[in-house]
Amino acid sequence: MEKWIYAFGDGVADGRAAMRDLLGGKGANLAEMANLGLPVPPGFTITTEVCAAFLANDNRYPDDLAAVVDTALKRIEEQVGARFGDPKLPLLVLVRSGARASMPGMMDTVLNLGLNDHTVAGSAAASGDARFAWDSYRRFVQMYGNVVLALDHNGFEDILESHKQDCGYVDDPELNGDDWQNVVAAYKSYVEAELGSPFPQDPHNQLWGAIGAVFNSWTNQRANTYRRLHNIPESWGTAVNVQSMVFGNMGDDCATGVAFTRDPSTGTPGIFGEFLINAQGEDVVAGIRTPQPIVTSAADVRPALDELMPDAFGELAGVAARLEAHYQDVQDIEFAVQAGKLWMLQTWSGKRTAAAALKIAVDMVAEGVIDERRAVASIDPASLDQVLHPTLDPSAARDLIVKGLPASPGAAVGKIVFTADDAEQRAEQGEAVILVRAETSPEDIHGMHAAKAIVTSRGGMTSHAAWSPAAWGGPASAPPAVC
Predict the structure, then answer these.
(1) Which pLDDT tens digit goes with each residue over 318-371?
(2) CATH H superfamily, domain 5-244
(3) How many CA atoms, within 13 angstroms, populate the side-chain half-sphere of residue 377?
(4) CATH 3.30.1490.20-classified regions of the chain
(5) I want to staple 134 with a disulfide (CB 3.0 to 4.6 A). Which of 34, 84, 180, 267 is the partner?
């Protein structure tokens, strides 16, 4: 019998980092972190071989897959102490893609899966926080509605913005439990009006719907565009990771963030990154909220993680150092803090500018982490073009209109456009354009690739817009400035 599923968590895992082709980068690194004894929420990876079989057989799963998924779910239930679909103490899971090559934001994710009209009450009772439960439910309905049911995410955003305006709110954290319950009701009405059927309530049906949607996202338009830009074969497929949820949105002692083990812009040693209190990871990487720094600095006076949650920061710093030494490379880490406890959600080899790559390679040789041969091999020759990017003369006179967070090197000049389609069309006509958006989404990839620069009013330096290599125009062209 084929082995379709590899479990991880609770200090052990079936897989390891070297199994990237089978488990995808995310699944392989989750397994590796679990084997290292790091705090990884338990879960399992459905292999890339299942993706290939699914897409080649008219979206049909292998006959024995359902049974092994049920077994893997029961293992998570035992580890977490909650039961999938239980109205009193429900297990909630996330479903994420995981290709062997990093494709940030190109494929789909569903969080908080397992919530319905009954389990949301159990979640509220178990946590003692109705606001948290209904906030999680609205996130799930919105993500599942967009990813699995193919509804326009703007329809959900319009409902939320209307509610905030009616109540005089500015930011999402201002909404209370009753507000989120009303938003969920409006979301469900929107789903039923658009599809002619109610929002799915059975957790097992929700799970299989999400797994299929993630497999199918391997061939969606934005993923196809990304693979074309970066020469990633379609035959690779994606794995699917199903993992128990940990919650960064359960209160002020909870947080979520993205950290690099060295500054990816300059190569300076030390943790660099951003986080949000009382939020979930998609809030950071999707750029829908502007996060706070992880480390206190004179250049950024906003409260940082190291002062707000010193214990969690100390543990994160230790884990970051351990992962960098283990992988012998800069790591890009996703993490969550629930009730003060740190959880590791992902680690990747961190992207970096050419200038940073040179400094990091030299520093790691000096530190004895890598040898000179590996240092030279770590530099992408094509990336050295970045060192020659145009820059602003620091002594030149200028009229400063606005300041932002610089997420990539270089300077750019162009006409402002406000949609990805307009950016692509004008670039094809030979115009230099700057794409200006409140926030970018993965659907904007074609416009991001065409633009000379990208400016957003929301999001931070660790969002997908800032660090997706697709946004940098691929290896053959200069990356746009992202601000």
Answers:
(1) 999 999 999 999 999 999 999 999 999 999 999 888 889 999 999 999 999 999
(2) ATP-grasp fold, A domain (3.30.1490.20)
(3) 7
(4) 5-244
(5) 180
- How many CA within 13 A on the CB side of residue 262? 24
Task: Tokens for 195, please give them.
Answer: 């599809």
Strand order in the sheet with 93-99: 12-13, 5-9, 43-46, 238-244, 93-99, 109-113
Residue pair 348/320 in contact (Cβ under 8 Å)? The answer is no
Domain 255-349 coded CATH 3.30.470.20: yes
Closest Cα partner for 206 from 180, 242, 237, 182? 242
Closest C-alpha to 98, from 192, 165, 23: 23
In degrees rounded to 5, what are phi and psi of residue 118?
Answer: -95, -45
Residue 274 and residue 293 in contact, taking contact as beta carbons nearer than 8 Å: yes
CATH fit for domain 390-482, picks 3.50.30.10, 3.40.50.720, 3.20.20.80, 3.40.1280.10: 3.50.30.10
- The pTM for the full model equals 0.83
Residue-wise pLDDT for 95-119, tens only, equals 999 999 888 778 889 999 999 999 9
Cα three-residue angle 75-113-239, rounded to 5 degrees? 70
Token digits of residue 242: 């199903």
Report the SS3 class of residue 437.
strand
The DSSP bridge pattern shows strands 238-244 and 109-113 to be unpaired
- Find, among 120, 150, 283, the residue nearest to 212 by Cα: 150
DSSP state of 200: P
Q: Pinpoint the residues of the chain covered by CATH 3.50.30.10.
A: 390-482
b vs e for 41-73, b when ≥16 Cβ sit within 10 Å of the residue's Cβ? bbbbbbbbbbbbbbbeeeeebeeebeebbeebb
Pairing mode, if any, of strands 341-349 and 269-277? unpaired
Task: Return d(Cα 441, Cα 287) in angstroms, integer.
Answer: 8
437: left (phi over 0), alpha (psi -120 to 50) or beta: beta
What does residue 46 show for φ and ψ, rounded to 5 degrees? -90, 125
The b-or-e profile of 244-266 (16+ CB within 10 A means b, else e) is bbbbbbbbeebbbbbbbbbbbbe
> Cα 483 from chain centroid?
19
